[in-house]
Write a structure and sequence with these properties.
Strand order of the largest sheet: 7-6-5-8-9-11-10
Distance between the termini: 28 Å
Number of strands: 11
CATH class of the largest domain: Alpha Beta
CATH superfamily of the largest domain: Vaccinia Virus protein VP39
Number of domains: 2
Strand content: 15-25%
Radius of gyration: 23 Å
Helix content: 25-40%
Structural class: alpha/beta
CATH topology of the largest domain: Rossmann fold
Shape: elongated
Length: 330
């Protein structure tokens, strides 16, 4: 639930073979079947209607810059890559490359959505998280890089080669549990969410990364319908105070589901609910690790202490803010 998500950083694709000198591009039908060239036209003078990478990017960057976008060049490039089906390297190698009219229209549609403050990741339909691509939808929170702090914290309690049972409460896209299952092949996980639509996305992401066989999906609020004990209880719950929601930036306020943001009057209701039940689900020697908002550490430590836990550690994100808290049995 970070309110200032940085721009996504898709993986680079290999350098393509250069097709032709500038101004002499091969026709699109001669390279069909190659995703890297899906939107490329033949020579402009022969086909008509094509537009150069240079012109499209210049147009988009100017529009985004006027809108106050902090990363106009990056956003324009990512949107053109998706709309035209071309690689980053291809755009850089040949700025005079011509893009088919249909792809240019898709690009301008993407640009219009970005100018309406829709995040790039939502336009693309995915977010890169801990080196993996996760599908996102309107039913899920857009995973932020800050949450990778929770991944690092959890991995410290998941030695390679040892089986661990984890639960990810309020899983959303499944990014936390799926990442940990991918990093630790002996681990198993239960993923819970109150939203059946979000849980379906989590299941899809688990399948995408080949870990679905080690994942169990449970619809319900927090521990509802869950049985057994866990070595790690993990959650990135809603933690924004209700009164703050209208003041969030439009990229968050207008596009993240409110149920994934709203932590109640003081932003702490989810922690109270989890802490009240967590002890009976924690295996001996287990840990609870939760993500938190800025300035919430002391209050949340108090909530878990009152429920029988011992505050054990704080983890800071790259900006130096306390982002995660760890608790042991008291």
């Amino acid at each position: 639930m970070r309110t200032h998500p940085p721009a996504p950083s898709p993986r680079r694709k290999p350098w393509p073979n250069k097709l032709a000198k500038r101004g002499k591009h091969r026709p699109a039908d001669s390279i069909q079947g190659s995703p890297a060239f899906a939107g490329v036209t033949a020579d402009f003078s022969a086909q008509g209607g094509g537009e150069s990478v240079r012109n499209l990017l210049t147009e988009a960057k100017r529009a985004l810059d006027r809108h106050g976008n902090p990363t106009p060049s990056l956003d324009a490039r990512l949107l053109l890559q998706e709309a035209a089906g071309v690689s980053r390297e291809m755009l850089i190698a040949d700025p005079d490359l011509e893009i088919a009219a249909a792809a240019a229209r898709r690009f301008r549609d993407h640009l219009a959505r970005r100018l309406a403050d829709e995040p790039v990741s939502r336009i693309l339909g995915y977010r890169e998280f801990y080196g993996r691509r996760f599908k996102i939808t309107t039913d899920t929170l857009d995973p932020r890089p800050d949450t990778e702090t929770l991944i690092e914290a959890a991995l410290a309690f998941m030695p390679l080669g040892e089986a661990r049972r984890i639960i990810d409460l309020g899983t959303g896209t499944g990014a936390i549990a799926v990442t940990l299952l991918a990093e630790r092949p002996q681990a198993t996980a239960v993923l819970t969410d109150i939203s059946p639509a979000a849980l379906a996305v989590a299941r899809e992401n688990a399948g995408l990364h080949g870990v679905e066989v080690r994942a169990t999906f449970s619809q319900g609020s927090w521990f509802s319908g869950v049985s057994g004990r866990f070595d790690l209880i993990l959650s990135n719950p809603p933690y924004i105070p209700e009164a703050i929601l209208p003041t969030l930036g439009p990229e968050v306020r207008n596009f993240d589901p409110k149920t994934a943001l709203n932590g109640g009057p003081d932003g702490l209701n989810p922690y109270r609910e989890m802490a009240a039940e967590a002890l009976r689900f924690l295996a001996p020697g287990g840990r609870v690790i939760v993500e938190i908002g800025e300035g919430q550490a002391s209050e949340i430590e108090g909530i878990f202490s009152a429920a029988g836990f011992q505050p054990e550690r704080r983890w800071a994100d790259l900006a130096g803010h306390v982002r995660c808290l760890g608790f042991a049995q008291g």
